[in-house]
Structure formats: structure tokens, C-alpha cells
Amino acid sequence: MVSSSPSTLSMGSNDNMHATAVSSPVSPASTDTKQKAKLVSASLQSLTECGSRLRSGHLVSFPTETVYGLGCHALDPIAVQRVFHAKQRPLSDPLIVHVIKADHALELWDASSKGPADTQYDQSQQLEKQALEILTTSFFPGPLTIVARANPSVPQIVMANTGYVACRSPSHPIARALISCAECPIAAPSANKFGHVSPTLAAHVMDDLGQEDVWIVDPSLGGSDEYVECSNDGGGKAVCQVGVESTVAKVQMYPSPSTANGSSKSLGCISILRHGAISSNSIREVLKKACIDEYFEVEDGVQYTPENVNNVAPGQTVKHYSPHVPCFMVSLARQQSSSDQLSNEEMKTLSRSVIIDYAAKLSHYQQYALAYRDLSPSGDAQRAAALVFETLRWSESVPDATRVFVPDMSGGISDEREVEALVLAVKDKLTRAASGVVVASFH
Q: H or E stretch including 131?
């Protein structure tokens, strides 16, 4: 499947096109207000037509277990450019390549697509290949994206010209059927305008990309039962069950043992670049089970970067998942303050503001707010993760709202290794929704 490429594309002769595409500016959004997007069912016939559309270089949006993706043929640079254009996404933000089988991902990474017969295939490369095989075997299909050095066949535009490609295998039955029908790897970021809240419903995609030439797979139109029944995935619901994007982990080998952080045995590092449903502890456990944990450090590598920095993984920019209404985090000190300490100006601001809460941290301000929702009053991270994007979209739809306030969740998290993975994911989404801005008062 990975070797599939469009008939007009010769992968060996397009290096210049890749480089040109990466350096080219993203085209401005269309001023045409006419709806171009098309909702299609999840029937086998519909998905077969979607697969043909993807092979021909066009776009299809589809549900995964995390969020809706905007898919294109991953090995077609022109198709990939269409994704950046539709999303108004900077070329510095790479895409995730979606595949069905672990073997298909291994073919796209440099270390795992080579063998001992290749020149300079040393212990470091053997360990990198082993780590990639262990991680894919343990977590594919599922909400883990793995970033590693890319095979030369991967277009540079997919990777933001970094040489690292991100791959994952979705578990959602519709996503898997679509990849199978497309007969090629699918590059797919979330199906929304860049920086906006990620979509978990077909309606969300239509709201953001209705003026783009994209087909949107909508399970509510029927066909998902027919498809799930015919699949070998054990069935499942046609929804985005996790609700937040996949965990992103980067596998990187040190240039030399002396580069390791104080460890003589560590030859490489696995960095968590984006928090999701898979925790760093889960990764440590599978490495330990395979007896290679002593060779890899597992660390938090989450970054908050400006848009002009080329990243090896998506979701690193500080402003992300943002509603169209200005959003701010409420400081820990203000969370713990009594509501009777509010000034008249703060009460006036709150009367025009939406509060999105977690674990009732801001519940004592509910009576003053224009609108209020708690992702989970009991602090259930799984429920909160499933609702966070939908709730952020709800906040921008509240009439007359001028502000959105969320709790700063950094307080009380001293060691992220001891915190549930989805708590960190919710914290990350709310932090980026507020562009990292913490306020000590409601102004």
C-alpha cells in the first residue's frame, strides 16, 4: 500500500517540487462564499468513491477515534498542498500520515525500512528499528503518533522540511475502511481552519471547510453499520470516541553516547511532543517488557512555538484549538479566591463571559457568568477529553459572549509522570486555546 502513488507522480523526480512546495506561502482563503463541500455517507460504496477521490489527489474528511481528519494522498505533494491551502495552515506545521498496518508505517521510516545489509547499519539503528517495531506492535492501531527519521520517499512538504515523518494507525472502523479503499497512505491533520478548535462532528467540519472542495464522511447519513459489519476490526461506533488528538512521541537516537543526559547506556530518547490518551508511563512499560528500556530515555518534550518555526510534529504552536472569542486561563490564586471578592468591573465582565470549567475549579463564579459548562465536575479526564473540543466550539456560539475563561490546570501537577495522560491532554488543549495567557482577574 505504501508504494502506491498517483499516476502523474514520479517520486524519484520531484525533489525540486517538494522543496518548492515547502518554501511556498500558503494560498489565501477563498473569498467565494458558495458551499463546495459535500457530505457523504459511510457506506462501502461511498467510501470506495472517497478512496478513488483520494488517489486522484483530492480531499476527503473522515472521522477517527480522536477527531475528524482532512485527508489527502500522503505521497502526492500537490494533494498535500491542497490540505495546507484548505486549512490556511503554515507549511512549518507538518502532517500525520495514517496507515492501516504497522508494516506500512515502518516502510516510511528510515531506520525500519533498512536492514543489516545496508551500509552503516550499527547498534544505534538496530535499537531505533527495534523501538519503532515495539511501539507500533504495542499501540497500533490506536491514538499514538510516532515521529522518526523519514524514508526518502516521503515528500518534504508532509514533514515541514525537517526529515522526520509522523505516522499512526487509527482504530476507527471508518478511517480504516477509507485507507483500505484509497490504497495509499493518507496524510491528515484535523479538519478545521488552522488554529481553530478541532472538529469531532461532520457539522464542525462543514462549519470550517464548507467553502472548500472536500467530501465529508458523515456516519449520520447511514452506511456505518453496513461498513462495520463487513470489517475485520470487531465493529465499533462511528464517533470520535477519544475526543482529543493522538499522543505524539518522537523516537530519536543520540549522535554519540556522550550526548545522553548523564546516562552511559542511553543511546536514544523518546520525547512526548503532544499529550493524548497514551501516557509516557505506558511507553516506558513496553520498552521495559522488551528489555530495551535502559537504552532509551522517555521525557516530556511538549513545546509552545510560534507559527514560523518548522516543527517535526503538529500541535506545537502556542495558539491552537482557539475559539473565535478571546480565551484566557484563570490563575490558581484567582481560582481559590472567594467569589465575594469580585469587583464590580469583574462582575460586569463575567456577565458577558463564558466559563469552561474542569473539576469545579471555577464553580463559585458560575452565578456571575453569561454561560457555564464543566467538562467534568468530578474530574473524570476521559469524559473531559471527549467533550473539550465540542465545548470550546459551543463557547463561541453563545450570544453576546466577549470572553471565555478556563482554569489554569498547571497547579498541583508537580510530576507529569504521575498524572493521568488525558488530564495532561485536557490541560494542553485549554492552555493552547488561551494561547498560554493566564490572568489573575476577570477583566
A: helix 123-139
* Residue 219 phi, psi (nearest 5): -60, -25
Count of C-beta atoms within a 10 Å radius of residue 367: 10
Residue type present at position 138: S
The values of phi and psi at residue 147, to 5°, are -110, 130
User: What does the DSSP 8-state code read for residue 13?
Assistant: G
C-alpha cell at 359: 473539576
**How do residues 348-395 score in pLDDT, each as one tens digit?**
999 999 999 999 999 999 999 999 999 999 999 999 999 999 999 999
Over residues 139-188, the pLDDT tens digits come to 999 999 999 999 999 999 999 999 999 999 999 999 999 999 999 999 99
> Which residues are CB-neighbours of 286 under 8 A, at least 6 positions away?
134, 135, 138, 139
Total length of the chain:
443
Residue type for position 100: I
CA angle 198-203-209, nearest 5°? 65
Exposed/middle/buried for residue 120 (C-beta within 10 Å: 0-12, 13-18, 19+): exposed
Measured CA distances, 393 to 77, 114, 192, 327 (Å): 31, 45, 12, 12
Chain-centre distance for alpha carbon 158:
14
The C-alpha angle 88, 89, 92, rounded to 5 degrees, equals: 150
Q: Which three cell numbers stand for residue 399?
A: 450570544
208: left (phi over 0), alpha (psi -120 to 50) or beta: alpha
What percent of the chain lies above the pLDDT cut of 70? Answer: 81
* Rounded distance between C-alpha atoms, residue 73 and residue 75, angstroms: 6
Cα 194 off chain centre by: 12
For residue 288, CA distances in Å to 21, 251, 277, 291, 299 come to: 41, 16, 20, 5, 15
Q: Which helix (H) or strand (E) holds 269?
A: strand 268-274
Amino acid in the structure at residue 400: D
CA distances from 167 to 27, 112, 205 (A): 26, 13, 22
